[in-house]
Fold Flavonoid 3'-monooxygenase.
Amino acid sequence: MSPLVTAFATIAAAILVYRLIKFITRPSLPLPPGPKPWPIVGNLPHMGPVPHHSLAALARIHGPLMHLRLGFVDVVVAASASVAEQFLKVHDANFSSRPPNAGAKYIAYNYQDLVFAPYGPRWRLLRKITAVHLFSGKALDEFRHLRQ
């Protein structure tokens, strides 16, 4: 066997072992029930041409709160008004932050800017400063020539 084929086989085997170990040791989250996802595309084939009809059909099977994997992204779907109200009114502080973004960590100096900062006291302070100084009536009048 040529050295090139051996190198590629070794690299492929190492990647396979790494992925297998990562899959086995990942922490299991307490997620709601949902359909079993396919290996790479997740639950995208379950969506169909009209996604809201497909979600309603899945909700009849799995309940009003379900877990879907869309590609490599985990999504929790609230398929009834009462469950959506629980998300948006009762538990709003738990779900108000953005999911972590690997690129934003480096672009925004470890999530220190307003756009990528997680919800909390620092984000509220940055938003207050922005609202008071950048979007005040006086500031908007001063930047009118830039907007036109």
